[in-house]
Specification:
The protein is an alpha/beta fold and about 525 residues long. The chain folds into two domains: about 170 residues, Aspartate Aminotransferase, domain 1; about 230 residues, Type I PLP-dependent aspartate aminotransferase-like (Major domain) (Aspartate Aminotransferase, domain 2). Helix content is about 50%, strand content about 10%. The strands form three sheets. Strands 4-10-9-8-7-5-6 form a seven-stranded mixed beta sheet, with helices on both faces. A four-stranded mixed beta sheet has the order 1-2-3-13. A hairpin with an 8-residue loop joins strand 2 and strand 3. Helix 5 packs antiparallel against helix 15, helix 7 runs parallel beside helix 15 and helix 16 packs parallel to helix 19. The radius of gyration is 35 Å and the shape is elongated. Its cofactor is pyridoxal 5'-phosphate. Keywords: Acyltransferase, Lipid metabolism, Pyridoxal phosphate, Sphingolipid metabolism, Transferase. Pathway: Lipid metabolism; sphingolipid metabolism; Sphingolipid metabolism.
């Protein structure tokens, strides 16, 4: 017999069902009341939520895409055949014949750099007078700086092993930043561990997509790369042509005035060099500052090669023109050329410097400058501040003397400002025409080969020179082939005369050869 439920149990189940039914009816009535009260005056909301519910139902119930199993099974023989046939593309383009020759003849210095060096290879084992390094003030082989550097090495080691914001900042870094800012005459300064990446960090830090950059066509490769990384809208003006610059600035302002809409005004920058690496020219800062105020632009000035070189104190282009450094919004400099250490800096107002500490890629993600090089830069600046005439006057006298001697050489073209220790020389077009060549017209590669031969001939007379090198595919304005001569205050008058004599003899021997 089946057991009969107790009367109390049946009553309990009926009571539970009744409570659930009552709760459900109450909830349903509450939902209906909420819908009526919420949606009677807002039909768009009702439509939007119905569409959303319909989309959710469609997405849940739709047929899922099944990629299936498309694996292709190959035999061992087929795999071997595919491996043999595979020919990977090279990671870099194959070297040309001239590029291979250039690498084979690359100059390698054996030992420390300075005004006199020895080459690691070649038949010439005697010391050469070095006119190939940016050692404008002779600090590379200064005995006092070298002795202090040894002491610093024992105290700080070879490196900080971390970015400045992550345990990489030393007391000497902060002291050098204050020293550089005071020497230049600006509000504050920030240090970067590499000169090349200083420009690559500063320009993209302030000029972004949608901003406007007006740049000189003759700026060096690092500035060109920084402008590209900024993704700003770029306008170029002819090298050191202030009339063309004014034309471009006026066109930019007219375009901004005539544009439609109420978009925020972009930031506008003029970008140029103090002392141009590729030409040896000096930028007319007085005219640039005038145009800056008239057309409401900011100036980014790269003083990598003019810092420590131009001006009565060697403080750069602002010192050279006796202009307040605050007229330059972002002043970039290098400590690895005239100063003879490493790294770079940017002088600006304190707010702009602090912004770089958070957004300058070269500052945030690169290990800070080694303490030994930081102290060497500090010592070099202090020596220059103590006795500027001893270094700057002799450097300029040497540059003036060498330039005058080179201009007397027939068939040679000499370029660069009269106050510049950076001199570019090249053979004149008339000289190239007179040189006999069986292959027809001269190409850039042919001229480069001739200049390499000229430097090799100069080495036979005890003088080290180097041709200028450019990245052909990425240079905005590819300069003409030349030999770059760097004059130092450490060179004696006899060494200057020997350099001019070596160039003259080399030109004579090169131009007399049949080609």
């Amino acid at each position: 017999m089946e057991s009969q439920p107790a009367p109390g149990e049946v009553a309990g189940n009926d009571s539970s069902r009744g409570l659930l039914r009552t709760a459900w009816d109450f909830s349903f009535r509450m939902v209906l009341r909420y819908i009526k009260n919420s949606y009677k005056d807002d039909p768009f909301r009702t439509f939007l939520e119905v569409c959303l519910i319909a989309f959710i139902i469609w997405y849940i119930t739709k047929q899922k895409y099944n990629i299936g199993n498309n694996e292709i099974v190959l035999s061992e023989k087929e795999i071997d055949e595919l491996v043999e046939e595979w020919n990977p593309e090279p990671l870099v383009p194959e070297l040309t014949a001239f590029e291979r020759e250039t690498l084979e003849k690359a100059i390698v210095i054996d030992g420390p750099n300075g005004t006199r060096v020895r080459l690691a290879s070649g038949s010439n084992t005697k010391p050469l007078i070095n006119f190939a390094s940016y050692n404008f003030l002779g600090f590379l082989d200064n005995p006092q700086i070298e002795e202090h550097a040894y002491e610093t090495l024992r105290k700080y080691g070879v490196g900080s092993c971390g970015p400045p914001g992550f345990y990489g900042t030393l007391d000497v870094h902060m002291e050098l930043e204050k020293q550089v800012a005071a020497f230049v005459g600006h509000s504050a300064a920030i240090l970067y561990s590499q000169a090349f990446t200083t420009t690559l960090s500063v320009i993209p830090c302030f000029s972004k997509r949608g901003d406007i950059i007006v740049a000189d066509e003759g700026v060096n490769f690092s500035i060109q790369q920084a402008i590209m990384l900024s993704r700003s809208k770029v306008h170029w003006y002819k090298h050191n042509d202030m009339a063309d610059l004014e034309r471009v600035l006026n066109e930019v302002n007219v375009q901004l005035t005539n544009r439609r809409g109420k978009k925020a005004l972009p930031r506008k920058f003029i970008v140029t060099e103090g002392l141009f690496q590729n030409t040896g020219d000096i930028a007319p800062l007085d005219e640039l500052v005038d145009l800056k105020h008239r057309y409401k632009f900011r100036i980014i000035l790269d003083e990598s090669y003019s810092f420590g070189v131009l001006g009565k104190r060697g403080a750069g282009l602002t010192d050279h023109y006796s202009i307040n450094p605050h007229e330059v919004d972002l002043l970039i400099g290098a400590l690895c050329y005239a100063i003879g250490a490493s790294g770079g800096f940017c002088c600006a107002d304190k707010e702009l410097v602090e912004h770089q500490r958070l957004s300058g890629l070269g500052y945030c993600f690169s290990a800070s400058m080694p303490g030994i090089l930081t102290v060497a830069a500090s010592d070099a600046i202090q020596v220059l501040e103590t006795n500027p005439d001893n270094y700057l006057v002799s450097m300029r006298e040497n540059a003036t003397l060498l330039r005058s001697l080179l201009k007397r050489i027939p068939g040679l073209q000499v370029e660069g400002d009269t106050d510049s220790p950076l001199i570019h020389i090249r053979l004149t077009p008339e000289t190239l025409v007179r040189m006999k060549r069986s292959g027809g017209a001269w190409t850039n590669t042919d001229i480069d080969r001739v200049l390499v031969e000229l430097t090799e001939e100069a080495q036979k007379d005890g003088v080290l020179l180097t041709p200028s090198r450019y990245v052909d595919e990425h240079e905005r304005l590819l300069p003409n082939s030349s030999i770059r001569i760097c004059v130092s205050s450490a060179h004696t008058r006899k060494e200057i005369e020997k350099c001019a004599h070596a160039v003259k003899s080399a030109v004579s021997r090169i131009t007399s050869k049949k080609r």
